[in-house]
Write a structure and sequence with these properties.
With about 300 residues, the protein is α+β, with helices and mostly antiparallel strands. It has helices at about 45-50, 50-65, 95, 100-105, 150-155, 175-180, 225-235, 290-295, and strands at about 1-5, 15-20, 25, 70, 75, 85-90, 105-110, 115, 120-125, 130-135, 135-140, 155-165, 165-170, 185-190, 205-210, 210-215, 245, 255, 260-265, 270-280. The strands form three sheets. Strands 1, 2, 3, 4, 5, 6, 7, 8, 11, 12, 14 and 17 form a twelve-stranded mixed sheet that branches. A five-stranded mixed sheet has the order 9-20-19-15-16, with no helix packed on it.
Length: about 300
């Protein structure tokens, strides 16, 4: 199943859809079946946590709903309430050949305010600084677990999306540069795990203004999908809606500037176009400080 969140118009409500043959079928009514919750709210995304139970009703609703072209709607981030974003560090054979290993490098983190969908685009809040694109597979957790062995890891996966792990370059902590609003683009929809026979063998391509920037495969990852889940779950509990960005080769990252258009495509997961916009520029107390003050 391919599941999207979408709007018919920029100011319209966000709806839930099932995508079939590039047409979106409205299944928003299924959200009435979600359990009521009260504070303290359970961790994770309530819809993702109940997805297996809701799928039969979603299929029935999709059968009855007239489809509309997917390219006529505004696609939002498929995961409404991600609990945390984890990013694979150095998780590519190029890095391994240079002497690094993702198990030694740990994980990077991105704040969930960065979540965005294709229609949101990427806003460079500080356009005077350099921001790189990093295309990779985004793994959406579907079932809570910790200390998950790789042999059982895929049982905890709800599905996959194309991920754009945008990262501002600079001397700040890496997680700071990854956490600007819209720097965690996911889409075009969530493709459930059962539709992808081998997530470790998906070719992908990222173009910027029609120019190929990244052409690779998930087969180039050092830690594949199951190993990544095991790696993350070895240090923390994973909850439904948590997202693991797989990592990407450093040599294929590159800068984007306002006005650029990114096009990302991955086997089995679809394709999406994401526009890059400029922001207001840095406006913080750091501006105007002397170098000695900045160092302090």
């Amino acid at each position: 199943m391919k599941i999207c969140r979408y709007q018919d118009a920029p100011d319209g409500p966000v709806r839930l859809g099932v995508v079939r043959n590039d047409r979106v079928h409205d299944v928003t009514a299924v959200t009435d079946m979600l359990p009521g919750v009260r504070w303290p709210y359970p961790p994770g995304d309530l819809f993702i946590a109940n997805l297996d139970r809701l799928r039969p009703a979603m299929e029935d609703l999709a059968d009855m709903a007239p489809g509309i072209p997917a390219d006529s709607v505004r696609l939002k981030c498929p995961v409404a309430n991600p609990g945390k974003f984890l990013c694979g560090a150095g998780n590519h054979k190029i890095v391994l050949d240079m002497g690094g290993h993702p198990r030694r490098m740990g994980l990077l983190f991105k704040m969930t305010n960065a979540a965005a969908g294709p229609a949101d685009g990427v806003t460079l809040r500080w356009p005077e600084r350099t921001t790189f694109h990093e295309m990779e597979i985004a793994i959406v957790i579907g079932k809570e677990g910790t200390e998950i062995p790789a042999s059982e890891a895929l049982d905890h996966v709800a599905g996959y999306c194309i991920g754009l792990d945008m990262t501002m370059q600079g001397s700040e902590f890496p997680s700071f540069g990854k956490s600007f609003d819209t720097y965690g683009v996911m889409g075009p929809w969530l493709t459930t795990r059962d539709e992808i026979a081998d997530p470790d063998a998906l070719s992908y391509c990222l173009k910027v203004n029609g120019e190929e920037r990244q052409v690779d495969s998930t087969a180039s990852l050092v830690l594949g999908i199951a190993d990544l889940v095991e790696h993350a779950a070895s240090v923390m509990t994973l909850h439904p809606g948590d997202v693991i960005f797989s990592g990407t080769p450093p040599r294929s990252t590159g800068p984007v500037v306002p006005g650029d258009v990114m096009h990302a495509a991955m086997d089995g997961l679809g394709e999406m176009t994401v526009k890059v916009r400029g922001g207001p520029g840095r406006k913080t107390p750091l501006d105007g400080m002397e170098p000695a003050e900045t160092a302090a």
